[in-house]
Amino acid sequence: MTDEKINRINELYNKAKKEGLTEEEKTEQQALRKQFIADFRNNLRGQLDNISIKEADGSITNLGEKHGIKEGH
Fold first, then answer.
1. Domains of the chain (ranges, CATH numbers)
2. Which pLDDT score, from 0 to 100, does residue 65 have?
3. Which residues pair with 60 in a beta bridge?
4. Rounded to whole angstroms, how far apart are CA atoms 61 and 53?
5. What's the CA gap between 5 and 7, in Å, rounded?
6. In this predicted model, what pLDDT tens digit does every residue of 12-45 receive, in sequence order?
7. Which residues share a beta bridge with 11?
């Protein structure tokens, strides 16, 4: 998500608190929030997929591969 879109989310939030939003602005705000959450989840999933754990027996388990999420590794 671009800084421009994040700034727009903040603008709409502040406007909603001060004076309220039109129906168009409410729809835009909802769409931007959904996109922000989806992007956040994808970034978090990407980070979690790259975590490896060293097991007690010394082997290394990649969590992304273990849970069938990571492809190509």
1. 3-66 (1.10.287.540)
2. 78
3. 54
4. 5
5. 5
6. 999 999 999 999 999 999 999 999 999 999 998 8
7. none
